[in-house]
Write a structure and sequence with these properties.
1 helix, elongated
Length: 110
């Protein structure tokens, strides 16, 4: 009776201990991801700051490049269904974190 139950999962993975990490969360119903966030974060002034975030808020899958002054560059991401985009987001940030981090450091003048 009823549909598949909703399962939520959250985790953090260090990419460079104490400096850069990946924060992931999702909600799925059965085998289908319905909500997700995959966020690259960098330590700055003793606070974890978001650098790049993939999610499917606002009704579509997208990537936000987050700038230190608060601006965001939003880009729609179309790589298949939500499950595929979630997997792609994790892969992209794991493979390219160093470049995103270096761009962030340049913006903050570090």
């Amino acid at each position: 009776m009823g549909g598949p139950r909703t399962v939520e999962r959250r985790w953090i993975e260090d990419l460079r201990t104490g400096e850069v990490r990946l924060r992931c969360s999702y909600q799925r119903q059965g085998k289908r991801v319905v909500l997700f966030t995959v966020q690259l974060e960098a330590m700055h002034n003793d606070i974890w700051q978001p650098v790049v975030r993939y999610d499917n808020a606002h009704g579509f899958c997208h990537r936000d490049v987050l700038h230190p002054e608060g601006a965001q560059d939003k880009t729609a991401v179309f790589v298949g269904d939500v499950n595929t985009t979630f997997t792609y987001a994790i892969s992209d940030l794991k493979a390219n974190w160093h470049g995103y981090w270096q761009a962030y450091l340049k913006e903050i003048g570090a």
